[in-house]
Design the sequence.
């Protein structure tokens, strides 16, 4: 599944799209840390957009839960709490096993989709054989992102597909906030190979179980990393 196409509109709307995309990417990558103030004036200077598209971009980010609009204080990147992390993974745990069941069924009747998952399985194997390094970790996370979007694209239910896609910025943000853990990469590669094998064998129950275990292990890792290195924008209260 690809991102929704931009809808042509006024110059201000086009600028708002650009500012929104840029800020969302910076939040997802951790370049804008939780709690970072986002003053309209600084964003106008940094992006070259006027106040109107900047305000629209901030409103859109607030509606996505990535920015907090605080009365008389302005905008800031939303904080991250352990409770919000748990809530996100609880929700993903309800949605993603159902999605991978549908993707498994779809792969059974779609040769092109099956080829895609077969190719990704081969890439996971190649990454598994590489020595630990930052480039290897980046390659893994890029491939894992492709895998996730392949699952989303193969999900038949439109509402399920759209809801999971809308959670992606929050998922990407947590991946970066939790820091790249080489040991986690080792385990996650095995988990993704298990998911690929289940999909390719047509075993929807095993695929759903593999996704559930992957999410549970990811949550444990994120909790451990956030608790050991909290920042100003992190709330460790549950």
Sequence:
């Amino acid at each position: 599944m690809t991102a929704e196409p931009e809808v042509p509109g006024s110059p201000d709307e086009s600028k708002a799209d650009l500012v929104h995309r840029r800020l969302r990417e910076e939040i997802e990558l951790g370049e804008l840390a939780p709690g970072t103030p986002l003053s309209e004036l600084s964003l106008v200077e940094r992006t070259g957009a006027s106040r109107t598209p900047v305000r629209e971009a901030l409103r859109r980010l607030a509606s996505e839960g990535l920015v907090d609009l605080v009365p008389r204080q302005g905008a800031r990147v939303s904080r991250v709490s352990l409770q919000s992390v748990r809530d996100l993974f609880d929700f993903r745990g309800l949605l993603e096993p159902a999605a991978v069941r549908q993707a498994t069924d779809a792969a059974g009747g779609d040769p092109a989709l099956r080829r895609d998952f077969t190719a990704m399985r081969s890439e996971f194997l190649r990454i598994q054989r590489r020595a630990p390094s930052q480039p290897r970790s980046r390659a893994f996370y890029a491939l894992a992102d492709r895998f996730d979007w392949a699952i989303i694209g193969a999900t038949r239910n439109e509402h399920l597909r759209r809801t999971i896609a809308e959670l992606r910025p929050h998922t990407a943000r947590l991946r970066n906030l939790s820091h790249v853990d080489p040991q986690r990469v080792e385990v996650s590669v095995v988990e993704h190979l298990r998911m690929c094998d289940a999909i390719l064998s047509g075993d929807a129950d095993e695929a759903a179980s593999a996704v559930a275990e992957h999410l549970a292990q990811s949550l444990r890792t994120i909790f451990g990393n956030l608790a050991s290195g909290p920042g100003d924008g992190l709330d460790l209260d549950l």
